[in-house]
């Protein structure tokens, strides 16, 4: 069955949003990884980092929106354990597994088990975007199973968003390693190197759930344009509110760090993402002749995210055969930008092929998946060192 105009636009604006986020992420990661250290001290680079700092929250925000779009229409299938929910849980566990695989200190189970140091285990279990997505979506499905009622689900998602936002400063004050095992401690804060702990980053995923939920309600009432206008106004209001509250001469937290733990900065970033989503919706209304290739990076965002990390930074499987190691991290701006462009072009071509296999050659696609997973597991468990 063909999508209705409303459904088509809905998916287009979300795919457009996710594509722009992927492009921002790819550009930012390449520039950060390859630019010469002295250039990273310049104000121009700091401004770049401020903008690039939105990519991880935006990625999580998009994951929350996509979750609602794909879940609400099959709500009753996910209220109890069955094949649809089992497939979903398996997919989220795979996301968590991919996160661990990226952080493997050695490509050998035996070496990790026998020779792994405290630092190795801290790196292995560090919390990243994949951990936030996997655990956040598992938590949302648990809420569906426990409460089933849609209004309660929405209320709990709202409560979790606020909780994560305002509990981040005390969570970062916590010496989690003294109270929890390493895998749990690494989820709490960045004290031991986790780049994206649950506090505050999973809050952006929950915020994306709220926005998509309200959008679907607006679709049912045929008031999408009014909703998007209000979303843009709400986003700008959150940005202004976060800036104004931060300027107040008093605070409620013993330790306050605007750039890492501040609820005000959470509000500013969440507001920016809300305004960005509204902007993507308005742009999507102007494009009448959508082509699948235009937003393929957004529709395959998880694939692109994992693959670009392997190519750019390397893993235990390719510690030396990666772009950062080969380029050396001492490039001039023009050189780094050129590699960023080539990286984006290469990921675009690979993603087109991957998406084609998924849509048109499903058997070959599954064979490739199973072969890659089988080879990885075989060598991981058979390599001595």
Shape summary: globular
Strand runs, count:
0
Number of domains: 1
Question: How many helix segments?
Answer: 17
Q: Profile the largest sheet.
A: none
* Share in helix: over 70%
Amount of beta strand: under 5%
Radius of gyration: 21 Å
Terminal residue distance: 53 Å
Oligomer status: single chain
The low-confidence runs, each spanning 5 or more residues with pLDDT under 50, are 1-10
Q: What's the SSE pattern?
A: HHHHHHHHHHHHHHHHH
- Roughly what is the average pLDDT, rounded to an integer? 94
What does this molecule look like?
The protein has 17 helices and no strands. It has 385 residues and is mainly α. The protein has one domain (5-382). Helix 1 packs antiparallel against helix 16, helix 3 (55-71) runs parallel beside helix 7 and helix 11 runs antiparallel to helix 12.
């Amino acid at each position: 069955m063909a999508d209705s105009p409303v459904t088509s636009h809905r998916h287009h604006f979300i795919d457009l949003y996710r594509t722009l986020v992927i492009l921002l992420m790819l550009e930012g990661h390449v520039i950060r990884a390859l630019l010469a250290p002295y250039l990273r001290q310049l104000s121009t680079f700091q401004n770049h980092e401020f903008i690039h700092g939105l990519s991880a929250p935006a990625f999580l925000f998009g994951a929350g929106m996509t979750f609602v779009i794909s879940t609400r229409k099959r709500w009753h299938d996910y209220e109890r354990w069955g094949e649809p929910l089992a497939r979903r849980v398996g997919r989220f566990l795979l996301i968590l597994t991919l996160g661990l695989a990226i952080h493997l200190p050695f490509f050998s189970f035996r070496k990790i088990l026998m020779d792994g140091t405290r630092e190795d285990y801290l790196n292995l279990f560090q919390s990243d975007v994949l951990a936030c997505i996997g655990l956040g979506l598992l938590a949302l499905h648990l809420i569906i199973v426990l409460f089933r009622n849609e209004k309660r689900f929405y209320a709990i998602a709202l409560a979790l968003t606020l909780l994560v936002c305002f509990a981040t400063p005390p969570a970062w004050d916590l010496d989690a390693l003294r109270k929890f095992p390493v895998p749990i401690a690494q989820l709490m804060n960045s004290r031991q190197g986790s780049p994206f702990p649950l506090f505050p980053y999973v809050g952006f995923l929950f915020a994306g759930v709220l926005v998509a939920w309200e959008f679907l309600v607006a679709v049912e009432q045929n008031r999408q344009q009014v909703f998007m206008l209000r979303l843009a106004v709400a986003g700008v209001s959150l940005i202004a509110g976060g800036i104004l509250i931060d300027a107040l001469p008093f605070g409620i937290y013993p330790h306050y760090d605007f750039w890492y733990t501040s609820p005000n900065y959470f509000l500013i970033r969440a507001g920016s993402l809300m305004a960005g989503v509204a902007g993507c919706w308005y742009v999507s209304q102007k494009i009448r002749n959508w082509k699948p290739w235009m937003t393929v990076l957004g529709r395959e965002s998880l694939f692109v995210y994992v693959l670009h990390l392997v190519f750019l930074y390397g893993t235990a499987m390719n510690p030396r055969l990666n772009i950062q190691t080969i380029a050396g991290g001492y490039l001039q701006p023009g050189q780094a930008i050129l590699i960023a462009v080539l990286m984006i072009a290469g990921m675009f071509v690979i993603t087109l092929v991957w998406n084609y296999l998924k849509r048109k050659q499903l058997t070959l696609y599954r064979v490739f998946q199973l072969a890659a997973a089988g080879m990885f597991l075989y060598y991981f468990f058979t390599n001595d060192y």
